[in-house]
Write a structure and sequence with these properties.
InterPro entries: MazG-like_dom, NTP-PPase_MazG-like_N, NTP_PyrPHydrolase_MazG. This is NTP pyrophosphohydrolase MazG-like domain-containing protein. By secondary structure, the protein is mainly α. It folds into three domains: 83 residues, MazG-like (Helix Hairpins); 28 residues, no CATH class; 88 residues, no CATH class. The chain has eleven helices and no strands.
Amino acid sequence: MSALDDLVAVMARLRGPGGCPWDAEQTHASLVPYAIEEAHELAEAVEAREAGLGDDAHLREELGDVLLQVVFHADIARAEGRFDVDDVARTLIEKLRRRHPHVFDDLAVDGVADVVANWDAIKRAEKPERSSALDGIPVTLPALARAEKTMSRARRAGLALPQALADAGPADGGPADGGPADEQALGAALLALVQSASEQGLDAERALRTATRALEHELRAQESAQRESTQP
């Protein structure tokens, strides 16, 4: 038996008769906060290792905690006769093969840009219900992460970001000479903005969420206008 098989058996035992009452009463919904927390702890472990402040043992532990969330959810579904962890793995394998035709099929690509473009095209075909390139970005992402994701999706979809963002200067909290030179300088600039906001009684997280929502609204309107202009 592999370690993964053993993990699945341990989880079933924990949630089965004579197992752990806490594990047995959990639901998909009740586990959501733990999945979010574990994902953040994994990110912290990765960043700590890259900075020379962590090690593989810590990273391995945090990866295990994320894996536990997958196995936990799969066992809840298994007990209800819906699907099991093998179904989860099969679905993932099918998706990886489908989205990498340059590896598992005979599609030719010319560098990473082609790979990303093909991935986006395949994903759009898989999810025809999504009418916008911005659909599917979780609204619960931290404000900065959601802002970055929104702008990344916009660029990949060929959407033009509002000129106000491009023209932002020091008075607007923007770069004075092309932007910070590195991540350390960027971090310092962001901290300075947060400090300034705090001193003025402003909520930086809420402000960024609000600005990102407004940006998303503008980008969606741009998409809609492009679609209308191409219709016969």
